[in-house]
Design a protein that fits this description.
The chain is of the alpha/beta class. It has a single domain, classed as Rossmann fold, CATH 3.40.50. It is built from four helices and nine strands; from the N terminus they run E-E-H-E-H-E-E-H-E-E-E-H-E. Strands 4-3-5-6-7 form a five-stranded parallel β-sheet. Strands 1-2-9-8 form a four-stranded antiparallel β-sheet. Helix 2 links the parallel strand 3 and strand 4. Helix 1 crosses helix 2. 36% of the residues are buried.
């Protein structure tokens, strides 16, 4: 059983949609796809993981790229919450995590990495945040899971798995770095 931060909504696990091995395979496949699509501009490639959990996935993709092609791709972390258009700063306390982009994004091919894409609002916010650091040559998007229900015209370039959901459901991704386990489950409102 999961309770939301506000304590109002009770969620229960409905089904596991990805195991640790599914996640590993998806990230290896995404890594190969990134190399295939960007092979001519590989020297200009950078990864930026969206807090939280996209940052862990970005580091894993970078490790895969190093293993596959023996290349070291810079990895940054961005917290896009202050850029979201659906956060009311006056009604709730907003805790912002660290943004760490230790490289210049100007002229780079930025791969944004997130665990789940839903409405597209987090991705839009992350793109705005990246552009505040400079003008990249291109921004591409890699996500572990696409659950649909877009509110903005945003699509991922690289998708680990498409998981159709209802709006009453959510997908919870757990990663070893935070939870000690890799898995993804669908949860739904209880009741």
């Amino acid at each position: 059983m999961i309770t939301s931060q506000s304590g109002a909504t009770q969620m229960r696990e409905k089904a596991q949609v990805m195991t640790a091995e599914d996640i590993r395979r998806a990230l290896v496949r995404i890594s190969h796809e990134i190399l295939e699509r960007n092979h001519r501009e590989i020297a200009d490639l950078v990864l930026i993981g969206i807090k939280s959990r996209g940052d862990y996935l970005a580091h894993r993709i970078a490790e895969n790229l190093e293993r596959i092609e023996n290349i070291n791709i810079p990895v940054g972390i961005i917290d896009a919450r202050l850029y979201r258009d659906d956060v009311n700063l006056h009604d709730e306390e907003l805790r912002v995590n660290r943004t760490d982009i230790p490289f210049d994004v100007v002229g780079k091919r930025v791969i944004l990495v997130d665990e789940v894409i839903y409405t597209g609002r987090t991705i839009r916010a992350a793109m705005d945040a990246v552009i505040d650091f400079g003008r990249p040559a291109a921004i591409q998007l890699a996500v572990l899971i696409d659950r649909g229900h877009r509110e903005l015209p945003i699509a991922a370039d690289y998708v680990g798995k498409n998981v159709p959901t209802s709006r009453r459901e959510l997908i919870r991704v757990q990663l070893v770095e935070e939870h000690g386990i890799d898995c993804a489950v669908i949860c739904e409102e209880d009741g």
